[in-house]
Write a structure and sequence with these properties.
Structural class: alpha+beta
Strand content: 15-25%
Number of domains: 2
Strand order of the largest sheet: 1-12-2-8-9
Radius of gyration: 19 Å
Order of helices and strands: EHEHEHHEEEEHEEEEHE
CATH superfamily of the largest domain: CofE-like
Helix content: 25-40%
Shape: globular
Mean pLDDT: 92
Number of strands: 12
Oligomer: single chain
Length: 260
């Protein structure tokens, strides 16, 4: 029987207020050095989407947007300001359900979430209408960060970029992997494992990166904690030598979408 190793997660303290052009990898290494620690083979760095978007300059002033006819309709249907509706449309491949509680959209990357991931919390200038967008390509962002961390430390690690997302069948949000590198997004055990009674597993597909993102999200917090990076240890069984297919590999194909 395969024994699952003990997992540990801790937030990194002493990180700066990130802004465009900052190096997340440098900050992670400095924080670990201050704790007299360093990245080890098999470690996984879970990084909040917000700081990745900030260092990549993914802010937009809503006042700079000119809402079109579709944005005007969406604003009227949901009670949102028309510039925000336009921002959501600009970031979306498809609007799935407009609702006053949230505009459910399929993001350009394929992820389905509220308001195309656009957020104003913990964003400088939010009171004046500045909002934060997702990275253009979260998987590419994860690959770049992994590469820089591995060059700096020599350790073979995984990187997850996480954001809080709601779920169709449950109340509340959980950390979810939107970008992933050096880590299996899923573990497909169908036909390759058995239950306690020897029956072959038929439907078990484990969302590995999402589970680690959710665990790390509890450690990092969602408010003013100032700890947007968490270090997960004990999950080396899921790390990979190559970058891998990324978080996009965990998206359900549109033709299998049961809610369309």
């Amino acid at each position: 029987m395969n024994l699952v190793p003990e997992l540990s997660v801790r937030p990194l303290t002493g990180l700066p207020m990130f802004a465009a052009g900052h190096s997340i990898a440098q900050a992670i290494c400095a924080a670990l050095d201050a704790e007299r620690d360093a990245l080890r083979d098999g470690d996984i760095c879970v990084v909040a989407q917000k700081i990745v978007s900030k260092v990549e300059g993914r802010t937009v002033a809503l006042a700079s947007l000119q809402p079109g006819a579709e944005a005007q309709w969406l604003a009227e249907a949901t009670g949102r300001p028309a510039p925000m509706a336009q921002a959501i449309l600009d970031e979306s491949a498809e609007i799935l359900r407009p609702h006053p509680a949230a505009i459910i959209a399929r993001h350009r990357t394929g992820h389905v979430l509220a308001n195309a991931g656009i957020d104003a919390s913990n964003v400088e200038g939010a009171d004046a209408g500045t909002v934060l967008l997702w990275p253009v390509d979260p998987d590419a962002s994860a690959r770049r960060l992994r590469d820089e961390l591995q060059v700096r430390t020599g350790a073979r690690i995984g990187v997850v970029i996480a954001d809080s997302m709601g779920r169709a069948w449950r109340i509340g949000t959980v950390g979810t992997a939107i970008g992933c590198a050096g880590l299996s997004m899923i573990e497909d055990r169908r036909g390759r494992g058995s239950d306690l009674y020897g029956r072959t597993l038929q439907a078990t597909v484990i969302a590995v990166a999402d589970s680690l993102a959710a665990m790390a999200g509890l450690a990092m917090g969602e408010g003013d904690e100032g700890t947007p990076v968490a270090l997960v240890r004990g999950a080396s069984r899921w790390t990979t030598q190559e970058d891998g297919p990324g978080a996009a590999s965990g998206l359900r194909p549109i033709e299998q979408d049961m809610f369309r």
